[in-house]
Design goal:
GO terms for molecular function: metal ion binding; proline:sodium symporter activity. Belongs to the sodium:neurotransmitter symporter (SNF) (TC 2.A.22) family. SLC6A15 subfamily. This protein is mainly α and 729 residues long. It folds into 2 domains: 74-363 and 435-642, Up-down Bundle (Amino acid/polyamine transporter I); 364-433, no CATH class. It contains 30 helices and 8 strands. Strands 1-2 form a two-stranded antiparallel ribbon. Strand 3 (598-603) and strand 4 (608-613) form a beta hairpin. Helix 7 packs across helix 27 (530-561) and helix 11 (202-211) crosses helix 23 (438-450). The longest helix has 51 residues, at 330-380.
Amino acid sequence: MPKNSKVVKRELDDEVIESVKDLLSNEDSSDDAFKKSELMVGDREEKDVDVEEGSDVEDERPAWNSKLQYILAQVGFSVGLGNVWRFPYLCQKNGGGAYLVPYLILLLIIGIPLFFLELAVGQRIRRGSIGVWNYISPKLGGIGFASCVVCFFVALYYNVIIGWSLFYFSQSFQHPLPWDQCPLVKNTSHTFVEPECEKSSATTYYWYREALNISSSLSESGGLNWKMTICLLAAWVMVCLAMIKGIQSSGKIMYFSSLFPYVVLLCFLIRGLLLNGSVDGIRHMFTPKLEIMLEPKVWREAATQVFFALGLGFGGVIAFSSYNKRDNNCHFDAVLVSFINFFTSVLATLVVFAVLGFKANIINEKCVIQNSEKILKLLKIGNLSQDMIPHHINFSSITAEDYNLVYDIIQEVKEEEFDSLGLKSCQIEDELNKAVQGTGLAFIAFTEAMTHFPASPFWSVMFFLMLVNLGLGSMFGTIEGIITPIVDTFKVRKEILTVICCLVAFFIGLIFVQRSGNYFVMMFDDYSATLPLLIVVILENIAVTRIYGIDKFMEDLKDMLGFSPSQYYYYMWKFVSPLVLLCLLVASIVQMGLSPPGYNAWIEDTAMEQFHSYPTWGMIVCISLMVLAILPVPIVFMVRRCNLIDDSSGSLASVSYKRGRIIKEPVNLEGDNTSLIHGKSPSEVPSPNFGKNIYRKQTGSPTLDTAPNGRYGIGYLMADMPDMPESDL
């Protein structure tokens, strides 16, 4: 009998062990050479590998330089343009301060629990979105692909908005600002104000005509807008350079891109509070309209805002958390980032309403002056009697309160003739009630307010630089949600993939910098993400709670965090959050069905927006965006269900272990040791070589969809390298 036969017999008699930790604990202390052995795959060592629990070997996966850098990355991703131009609009539209109540409730019910869930699965499995859901169940691997598709769609048009901000930023270094006054047109006889600008306003004209040079319909492309094309190219170059080294490059930029917007918002808040009328705007914001709060529409819009504000379903949250250590307190991170996001929205709302209050006060003063002049003319021609006017009223320096007093008297006395007088009620509240959001807020209303600021170019530079940084922070997370899963799954070089992704996105994004590009941005914003992301997050919740197992997941959390999470999350994940998400999905579908599909087109002749329905091809594009985004889910499910792809051909389900790390398993190794479980005696099997042993999954065993407690349920056998002769021992 060979001298090592006892060792071989011991290996055959040992029961199959399910974890690397247990295997390593059963090795002889003298087998140090075994632990230091390496497995070469394709003549090179795998670089992107994990550390299993119990391994004291350093993890070779990229990691954050510090906890602060990671928090800033998550804050930069979740805090985006929507916090500045979407949340204030919803607050104004849905009951002012009363809107904060449903928002906070829904943040606690679906926001924090689902954000915590994504952080936890990313940190536990240490893969991007594709690898995470493929790990839990290969049949649900399509969830990760769907997230990547949605991220790509959003990145296409989101970077266009950054391009717009870059254009305004570049135009802000001049005094007066180019959108301060309407341009003059000269002909042979005289000079006059541009009619399109005179009918609208200077900032509106500059946005639609100078910046976008917009066409009158979606079907009228009008060719490329070269100014915006250059800005879009600059935006993609910035993103590419920041992301080319992954978190090693983007993480350092986060210190500026995540913190600078807060500096600007605080500066704007302090400056805004010193402006005349800012208190009126803030008072208008926080005046609760409790009757509106009870409407279902308010809760639906609050839930949608919570959902998108935290970046749920995009994969960026999972990607960022996958670079954390396993024992990181991701529960603390989830609560911290969620409330930072909320307070950022409130801070941005304070700034917006302070500035809009100032703007409303200026517009109201102009209204008072213009209508006071009308009253003086009516007094001169005898249409109004001087006896109506109180004696203390001085029209040369009339206040808003005095004007409204005169207005009410005239309306009461001249009740039948009042409409023909052409007088307007000049109320600040009327101006503040004109809800604006998105580009209308950032590029029209806010820019108009800044023209009245002292040193307006400085504030304009700060504002649009803030928008660029907010956009870049979100873009980093969005691109990471595409790059990380693909790199983890297909083992491609991150630098090459990043460059290719940015190049492809730029060339596709040229459709957004046509003269009709703004209409395509609205189309993608409305249809490419909302429904697909809701479905993705519902499936994520089901995958963790029903397929992986909520009890097992709670045990994993206890193992990672060092303490048991509150049972609150158990009930939220298992019952409440899925129900709320399903209701939100149904409500969104109903809302989409009731709202006629279309867009607001800018009509040059009337200088007004006009609603247009999408043409047939436009409807096809809208439907295709939603279908393409969610299509990977059923495709991957059917491929896995019908076994059209062999799991042993290098997929994530085919792994081996080396020195406590997950690595790819070589395909079709010769001399597979199935003989060890088919009753062959030890003498019929080559002896093991302790310098080259690996742990390998049993060939021919059934493929399991789930990995109990993070491992395959069938265990691993200690196998030898079949081509090593016994005499070499």
